[in-house]
Every structure is written in C-alpha cells, then in structure tokens.
Amino acid sequence: MFKTAYMAVRGRVAGLFVQRPEPMMLSEFARDRALSVLAKKGYQAHYYAPDLDVEDQELAAALRLLGRSGFIITDQGGDLVGKVSLAHSGSESRARQKRAQFRVIE
Q1: d(CA 70, CA 23)
Q2: Distance separating alpha carbons of residues 91 and 104, to the nearest angstrom
Q3: How far is CA 103 from CA 25, 33, 42, 94, 98, in A?
C-alpha cells in the first residue's frame, strides 16, 4: 500500500517540506526529437551544472540537488554559479563537447 501511495504522489517528503519530483528520465530518441523541434523554431537548450569546479563536497551536493530540481543558483554578487553548456543532439556532438572540457590534472 505504501508503494502504491508513493507512486501516486511522485514527490518526496523531507520533514515538513515536500520536495519537487526529480526530472523524468528521457529516452535518447525523445530528447533528440525535442532538441530538433527547438532548433527548427530557433531556440537552443542548455544543460546547467551548478556543482562543476566546486571542491567543498557539502556545497557541491546542495548545488547538485537544487540544480536538478529546477533552481538557478547565483552567488553573493548575483552571478550564475556553475556551468551552462549547449545541449546537442547526437552522440558525436556530445563526444566533442566532452573532449573540449578535458583537462590534465597534475
């Protein structure tokens, strides 16, 4: 019964607060189709990763949780925290983007 009730709610309860549901998982086909529609209409989709380059693990976890829940996070100066990258359809575009972010750590 609990599982059925949970599946009906599709949200998470933490103490007195109800958190927004996590974003649904998209199939690669559905994502690519949606990106194509946006491109035809002159729009661009972007990925937001607020936790990139953050060394404090507690802060990174909080940024990741809120970023995945739809929040846009700014610092004390009002600047966007993290990185925003253009969403590309197709595996070759994603591979090119990953190669561009590659860094050698000494």
Answers
A1: 9
A2: 23
A3: 29, 31, 32, 16, 10
Cβ–Cβ under 8 Å, residues 93 and 28: no
- Short-list 93, 98, 66, CA closest to 82: 66
pLDDT digits (tens, 9 = 90+) for 49-102: 999 889 999 999 999 999 988 899 999 999 999 988 888 755 666 676 677 777
Distances in Å between the Cα of 3 and the Cα atoms of 8, 9, 20, 21, 67 are 9, 10, 18, 16, 27
- For the chain, the structural domain boundaries read 26-101
For 54, the 3-state DSSP assignment is: coil
The reply to whether the predicted model has a pTM over 0.85 is: no
